[in-house]
Amino acid sequence: MKFLKLENNDELQANLFSFAIHLALFLVMVFSVGWQTKTPYYGEVELWDSVPVQKKINKTQSTPKKKIKQKQNTKAKKSAEAKAKAKAKAKAKAQKEVDIKLKKKKAAEKRAAEKKAKKLKKQKAIKELKKKVLKQEKIDKLKKEMLEKEKVERLQQQIIEQQKIEKMQAELRESELKQQKKPALEGENEVKGGVDTGELNKYKLLIQQKIQQNVNQQLCGLDYVILEFRISLMPTGELLGQPKMTKSSKIKSCDDAVERAIIQSQPLPLPKDSGLFSKLKNLELKFHPNGVE
Q1: pTM reported for the whole predicted model
Q2: What is the C-alpha separation between 191 and 195, in angstroms, rounded?
Q3: How far, in Å, CA of 202 to CA of 165, rounded?
């Protein structure tokens, strides 16, 4: 750890290096100088006419101290460049990591946004589907209520018509009982003289009302239409043969509905009096969708 601190401290390195150089110079001076005493010797001297010129020292030549300083500067420069490169490399690496993180973050945000958009779209589709289902349920419920209401109204109408028929039948039975109490001769004279038109009309109305309550009026539409049938009856109120249509409503479903109603209404109400029955056994009946004429 101390060695790493020494390596990173340029000033301390320079001081240590300078100290080592001075120590080396000191040792050279100590060992190179002769400190022993010697006997002086004599020598010959040459005389010159002029003083020899000393050669100039090449300025390009550097002293050891200057070389050391240059080395130190070079090393410091290289160290600074290495540090700058390392710092730049670290900065580039850090920037690259930041860019990668940013890209990942953006990609994650994009995926999250797409996922959220898909979820919202799905929720919207489900909501729209629920609305359609609720709307359809409301329509179905309304249709059901209308059909039930129509059914109830039709049932009420049938009940009212049935009550009318029962009332008229009761009146007819009472009338018949009164007629039975009259002398037989008087009864014969009345038959010979002609049948009461009111009684015939009552029975005819009863027959038409019973048939009308079995007609499916929806098959005849809303327009005013008239159709006529001819029927033949037995004393029991059963049909003698099939009903014959003499006038069509020009709506086949309506014509068929009335024919079915005639067949379903058997036995039809008839008087017990044979004279009256003889006038009712062949009838021309007129119908329209909303009632009896």
Answers
A1: 0.36
A2: 6
A3: 10
